[in-house]
Amino acid sequence: MQSKWDIGEPEKRTINSETEQLKSELLTLNMGPQHPATHGVLRIEIWTDSEIVAHAIPHLGYLHRCMEKHAENLDYRGVIPFVDRLDYLAAMNMEWTYVQAVEQMLGTEVPRRAELLRILTGELQRIASHLMAFGTYALDLGAFTPFLYAFETREKILRLFEEVSGARLLYNYIWVGGLWNDWTDEQLERVGQFCDFMEEEAKKYNELVSYNKIFIERTANVGVFSLQDCLDYGATGPVLRGSGMKWDLRKNKPYSLYSEFDFDVPVGDGEHGQAGDCWNRYMVRMKEVVQSVKIIRQVLEKLEPGPIMGKVPKIIKLPKGEVYVRQECPRGELAFHLVSEGDAKQPYRLKVKSPCFTHVSMLPRVAPGQMIADFVATVGSIDIVLGEVDR
Amino acid sequence: MLNVDFQKLSDLINKNVPGANAVVNTPEGKSDSSITVEASSIFAVVSFLKTNSEMPFNSLHVISGVDYVEHMEVCYMMSHFDPEGGREFILKIKVTDRVNPAVDSIVSLYAAANFQEREVYDMYGIKFNNHPDLRRILCPDDWEGFPLRKDYVAQKVYNGMEVFPDSKMNFEDREFIVRQAMIKKAQTQSAQ
Amino acid sequence: MQDGVVLSTVDEFLNWGRKNSLWPMTFGLACCAIEMMATGASKYDLERFGCGAFMATPRRSDLMIVAGTVTLKMATRVKVLYEQMAEPKYVISMGSCANKGGPYWQHGYHVLKGVDEVVPVDVYVPGCPPRPEALIEGVMTLQKKIANERLLRNKWVKHA
Question: Is C101 an interface residue toward B (CB < 8 Å)?
Answer without folding.
Answer: yes
